[in-house]
Structures are given as C-alpha cells and as structure tokens.
Design brief:
The chain is an alpha/beta fold. It has a domain of 134 residues: TIM Barrel. Helix content is 59%, strand content 9%. It has a 6-stranded parallel beta sheet with strand order 1-2-3-4-5-6. α3 packs across α4 and α13 crosses α14. The longest helix is centred in the first third of the chain and has 26 residues. The radius of gyration is 21 Å and the shape is globular. It starts with a helix and ends with a helix. The mean pLDDT is 93.
Length: 316
C-alpha cells in the first residue's frame, strides 16, 4: 500500500513539473496536497509541541523528471500529450548544472502555485493538529536558495496570503514564521536586506560551501584527495566548515542579519551540523542552533556543551 501511494505521489509530481499550463499543474498539485498535509500532520503530532521547521521544495527539477520511455508513456497519456511531445518537453527541462539551476525558491517564482500548495499543506496540517490535540502548533516555513531579498519577498507574499486566509477561516489565533536558507554567497553579503523579510536564517552549509569554493559536492571527491596529500587543504570542506572563507560569509551574514533584526534566530542545517569543530565555530559567531542527522545528535550536543564551557573559561 505504501509503495502504491509513493508511486502515485511521484507520478503526480512528474505531472506537475512537466505540465505545460497552470490548470494542469494545479490539478496535479491538488492530488499531491493530501499526501503533504498528511505527512505534516504526523510530523506535528510526533513533535508534540516542539517547533517544526519546514523547508519548502528544494531539489532540482531533474530529480522529478521521467527518465525512461516506460515512465514517459503513461505520463503523456495522463497529460493528454503525445509521447513525442512529452519527450521533447522533458528534454527541454533538463539542465547542464541542475544544482545551480531551476530549484529552490526559483521554482516557486516560476510556479507560485507550488508554494501555495505547500503552504496549504503546512497550515492546514497545523490547524488540524491544533484542533485535535489542543496544543498550538507554530510552523516555521523556510524558503530555500534565496539570493535576493526580492525573491524572498515574492515567495513570502504567496505564503502569507495563503496562510492568513486559512488561519482566518479556521478561527484560531495561530502564529507562524517565514525564514530562509542562506546558501548563496550573495545572500550572505546582503543579509541585512534579506533580514527585512526573513524572521530566521538557517545556513545551508552544503550548498554555501559548494558555491563559495566553486566546485560540485558530488564531483569534488574525485580530486580533493590530491589537495590533502599536497597540503593545499587540511580537511574536507564538506565535512568541516572552512572558517576562513565559508565561515567568514556566515559571520558577515550573522552580523548583518542582526543589524536589521536584532532578535533573528540563526542556525545551520546540513552534515556540518554534526561536526564538533563546526559546532564550536557556530557557537563562537553566535548561532542559536545546529541541525544534523539523528546519529550525530549526541556528538553535536557534546560539542555545543564543550563550546559553552570554553567560552565561560575565556578560551574560545
């Protein structure tokens, strides 16, 4: 049963991405909505009063495209397109460098109905769980891959308009927050402007490292060994944050963000969040939280405690 729902969800995502008109895209999004809402309801229940940060759609388009003729045929039929026309559409959507292409908030700028659907899923789930449990849910909505405050403002307007309407209709006095991921160098150096719209920052250090160094995370492993053996790099910048470059951008963004919004919450998400050296650095520049994969949580907590002790002793 789970496999059936997963296949249907993927199929509708593909319909949504390959649709050539807004009506077909919205129809596919309506079918995706119950799955997303159901996921968020379970998430809010499991978190039982703890804050939940929801990152909006982030992966590149190519992850949702059909790749074989067997996948294209039924999709073409459901879209009312010929096999050849859909194959041509799929080819036109492929990108040379998808990780720096049409993904994150850029998708929501092109297709605002995606952000609208995800907002409906988050807010409707929060309303349902609040009414069911009696415990207020305060969702935190995170817009990924922002590089310009106008991008964030555009997507945030879609979120706010949708959320406020649903909350008014529910009769609840529900609060929510909208923030962003700082993962593009331009966002870091214009963070004072970004903070006029963002209520929190989460540093996406995987992408920020990739874009600051100018090499692909997926491909860098093929040549980074030579950099370690020749003492150019001391460690893998995707495992421990490069404090001189990437870390400096984080520091600039933190300072600029606070200059505009003194109470802004700052944190990081990504594998760096479980690295002790990175956790200590984050404490040093005033970040308020780190997020990491579950098995690294004990290491991150210990590193955070050690950083706090070092600060108290004046050695950080």
């Amino acid at each position: 049963e789970h496999m059936f729902f997963e296949e249907e969800r993927i199929f509708n995502f593909r319909r949504m991405i390959t649709a050539e008109d807004v009506e077909t895209r919205k129809e596919a999004l309506e079918k995706i909505l119950p799955y997303q809402r159901g996921d968020f309801e379970e998430l809010f229940k499991a978190m039982d009063g703890y804050s939940v940060n929801i990152r909006f759609l982030d992966p590149p388009l190519h992850e949702f495209l059909p790749h074989t003729d067997e996948e294209i045929k039924p999709l073409a039929e459901s879209l009312g397109m010929t096999f050849e026309a859909l194959k041509e559409r799929v080819e036109s959507l492929k990108e040379f460098n998808p990780m720096m292409g049409h993904r994150g908030c850029r998708l929501a700028v092109t297709y605002p109905e995606i952000a609208e659907m995800q907002t409906r899923a988050v807010i409707e789930a929060a309303i349902n769980v609040t009414k069911e449990t009696g415990h207020p849910v305060t969702p935190e909505i995170m817009i990924p891959l922002v590089g310009d405050v106008k991008e964030l403002k555009y997507v945030k307007n879609v979120v706010v308009k949708t959320a406020d309407k649903l909350i008014a209709e529910s009769g609840l006095d529900m609060k929510y927050e909208v923030g962003t991921m700082i993962e593009i160098p331009r966002a870091a150096i214009t963070a004072d402007k970004i903070a006029t719209e963002a209520e929190f920052f989460s540093f996406g250090t995987n992408d920020l490292t990739q874009m600051t160094f100018g090499f692909s995370r997926d491909d860098a492993a093929k040549f980074l060994g030579d950099y370690y053996s020749k003492n150019i790099y001391e460690h893998d910048p995707f495992a421990t944050v490069d404090q001189e470059g990437v870390g400096e951008l984080m520091k600039i963004a933190s300072e600029k963000g606070r200059s505009t919004r003194p109470n802004i919450r700052l944190g990081i998400c990504g594998e760096h969040g479980g690295d002790p050296k990175t956790v200590e650095f984050c404490h040093k520049i005033g970040l308020t939280y780190v997020s990491c994969s579950p098995y690294r949580v004990p290491i991150a907590r210990l590193a955070a405690a050690q950083a706090a002790v070092k600060e108290k002793m004046g050695i950080l």
